[in-house]
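Lecture 7 notes: from sequence to structure.
We start with the chain below.
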Amino acid sequence: MATQKPSREGNVVLEPQRAQVKAPPLYKVLILNDDFTPMDFVVVVLQQFFGMNREQATAVMLKVHREGKGVCGVFPRDVAATKVEQVTAFAQQHQHPLACVMEES
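Predicted structure tokens for the same chain:
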């Protein structure tokens, strides 16, 4: 939007105003621990869907194993929801009960 400001000659000069744009909320994608999904499968999921290298994926997998959950990444809502759906479908396809959820960051 612009505001009008009269000039000395009677002409109107428009001055631009900066729009206040709020960043969209971000969501954490988490993997939850269970007693049935193999650790190697969790590492594969982290590499395939979250772009982690083997070392990063192993560290997150161990955090999930020890603490019950681990953060896979932080994304805008639509991206986070897609990641959750992809991981859930992949786990079901391979007959693992791996749970992947998202929560507001």
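Points to note: The first strand starts at residue 2 and ends at 6. The helical segments are 39-50, 54-67, 77-93.
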